[in-house]
Specification:
about 400 residues, alpha/beta, TIM Barrel, 2 domains, eight-stranded parallel β-sheet, three-stranded mixed β-sheet, 7 helices, 17 strands, about 20% strand
């Protein structure tokens, strides 16, 4: 039986007002099943939702309130509209300690922000899925000058009144919105680090479980067509031994690579593996050899300390910048996946981090393009924030100015 997911789209009519287009999603009753490769969306058919052969099951129908108008979103007034034409993005790979273009080995200049999925730091999980709000924020980040974003996925162990909360493999509407988000990011020229940010599939120390690795297999199948996507296994490991974190990350890394091999993907996605200590702050006992068996792995660090603040590590006096970055940046491929004025870090520190990272060619992604998930790049707003003003905070002004250069 054909399992079909239909979406009533505002302003578009076909087959009685319902547009049904093929896209790569799984049906809720068969979460591990990959559907055929998509032939949509296309510029003339910009919808997110889908039709796939599931080998059985029901035919759920979604009403028009489930998503917003399918028209292309625009950044805030006064910001230049990003080019919505065909993306010039080329695949990326790791070459030595640098992320480079796969076609010519030129280092990629990856700078940008964190952006949340349709659940939006749990602010919008209580509302109908609205992919166009995510697209609006992507458009504004592009208008700021971002070349990449970290897209933070979230799921929860129970609904507790939420409308949207389950893992992607159990929520076809969320998955379809995710695919549309990735398609739009590619269209406007943004590389994406897809991160399992807040998830019931990690343990209490944010270390991935076997279920998380199975979910990554599902995500690889759904996103295989997007060459601009990088995979971030989990968010911020902590309070676990380095070997335990390495073992758990290795199971997920191997699952991703196995799924890519089954799909015949010629150039595997870059995998970002968070550093094992103190909320992904530093390397611990890992070394430059720890992940060398996979040449397309980068290590992700989150920086929230006083950049030149003194610290004593392993009996040696040093600074946080030297300990977390300078001691490693010439030895392992890495990126800064989060930073912002919190803990010991000031706004002045964030400006210094950007300047130093740019001088090193080190990719950075500021936390976060949101008004209610501090430290915020956007001024506070009420509720879910759909169509709220995207006015930058003081920290946001620093990041926006840096991205414009």
């Amino acid at each position: 039986m054909l399992g079909t997911l239909k979406l009533l789209l505002l302003g578009l009519t076909l087959d009685g007002g319902v547009i049904t287009i093929p896209v790569q999603v799984s049906c809720p009753e068969l979460p591990a099943l990959s559907c055929p490769a998509p032939v949509c969306p296309t510029p003339s058919c910009p919808a997110a939702i889908c039709n796939c052969t599931c080998g059985g099951g029901s035919t759920p129908t979604l009403d028009a309130g489930s998503v917003a108008d399918a028209g292309a979103p625009k950044p805030d007034a006064g910001s230049p509209k990003p080019d919505a034409g065909t993306s010039s993005l080329v695949p990326l790979k790791v070459n030595g300690t640098r992320i480079v273009r796969a076609d010519n080995n030129v280092p990629a200049r990856l700078r940008g922000v964190n952006i949340h999925d349709t659940r939006s730091c749990d602010a919008c999980a209580w509302n109908a899925v609205n992919v166009n709000e995510v697209k609006r924020r992507l458009a504004e980040a592009k208008a700021w000058g971002a070349t990449g974003v970290r897209l933070n996925m979230e799921d929860y162990p129970s609904g507790d009144g939420r409308v949207s909360w389950e893992r992607p493999s159990r929520d076809p509407l969320y998955t379809a919105a995710l695919i549309e988000t990735l398609r739009y990011a590619n269209e406007i020229g943004l590389y994406v680090l897809l991160s399992l940010w807040e998830s019931a599939l990690t343990d209490s120390n944010d270390v991935p479980t076997a279920e998380a690795c199975t979910e990554w297999r599902f995500l690889v199948r759904q996103t295989a067509q997007f060459q601009h996507v990088r995979d971030g296994i989990t968010n911020e490991p902590r309070s676990s031994t380095d070997d335990y974190v390495r073992g758990a990350m290795e199971v997920c890394r191997a699952a991703i690579r196995d799924e890519e091999a089954l799909l015949g993907i010629a150039l595997p996605h870059i995998i970002a593996i968070s550093m094992p200590r103190q909320w992904a702050r530093y390397m611990g006992s890992w070394s430059e050899a720890t992940w060398r068996h996979d040449l397309n792995v980068v290590l992700e660090s989150h920086f929230y300390d006083s950049i030149d603040g003194a610290t004593n590590q392993n009996g040696q006096a040093t600074t946080w910048w030297k300990f977390q970055v300078l001691d490693w940046v010439q030895r392992v491929p890495m990126l800064i996946g989060e930073f912002g004025p919190a803990s010991g870090m000031t706004e002045a520190d964030t400006r210094t981090l950007i300047e130093r990272s740019d001088a090193l060619g080190l990719p950075w992604l500021a936390w976060t393009f949101h008004g209610r998930c501090p430290p915020n790049l956007i001024q506070n707003y009420s509720g879910c924030g759909v169509n709220a003003s995207l006015t930058p905070t003081g920290f946001g002004v620093i990041v926006k100015d840096a991205l414009s250069r």
